[in-house]
Write a structure and sequence with these properties.
- The protein has one domain.
- It is built from six helices and two strands, in the order H-H-H-E-E-H-H-H.
- It has a two-stranded antiparallel sheet.
- The N and C termini lie far apart (75 Å).
- The radius of gyration is 20 Å and the shape is elongated.
- By secondary structure, it is mainly alpha-helical.
Length: 151
């Protein structure tokens, strides 16, 4: 008897989110994209150059034609799998969905922190938040027109 394992990855359904959750998803996506671009540029958590690879691993990676830089892209599956997974009204959380990629991410995190926001990443997320607020501005109700607190 043959057995088959079926793996289903959950995807975020944007049509079932309320307005605030959609906004947080936009900000979280910008944050994840800025982290990925920092890693592609071989930069560490402080926007400085990343730690060098060990000599043996650098030789192995160069033989495979991937270069000897710490960009976390040997196969590319871990970073491709790193996405915004959970969204609430005031937070967006990114992670890897498969156990194999979570293990890889954990090991790489122990070598050098990469799932952190550098100063440039924080600035990119703040710019995205300002843009989302500018888009929301026409829809917001002013407290002053409703007779709320005025100072």
């Amino acid at each position: 008897m043959a057995s088959v394992r079926v793996y289903v990855k959950k995807q975020i359904r944007l049509d079932r989110m309320n307005f605030r959750q959609q906004s947080m998803f936009k900000i979280g996506t910008v944050g994840v994209a800025s982290v990925k671009s920092r890693l592609a540029a071989v930069q560490g958590p402080g926007d400085s150059s990343a730690k060098p690879l060990t000599k043996r691993y650098a030789i192995q990676k160069t033989k495979m034609g991937k270069g000897n830089r710490r960009n976390l892209m040997l196969t590319g599956s871990m970073l491709a799998n790193f996405q915004v997974r959970t969204v609430s009204e005031n937070s967006a959380k990114a992670s890897n969905s498969t156990r194999k990629d979570r293990l890889k991410a954990w090991i790489n995190q122990k070598i050098e922190p990469w799932v952190v926001f550098s100063p440039k990443n924080k600035a990119a997320a703040a710019a995205a938040a300002r843009q989302v607020l500018e888009e929301m501005k026409p829809r917001l109700l002013l407290e002053r027109t409703l007779g709320g607190k005025q100072q």
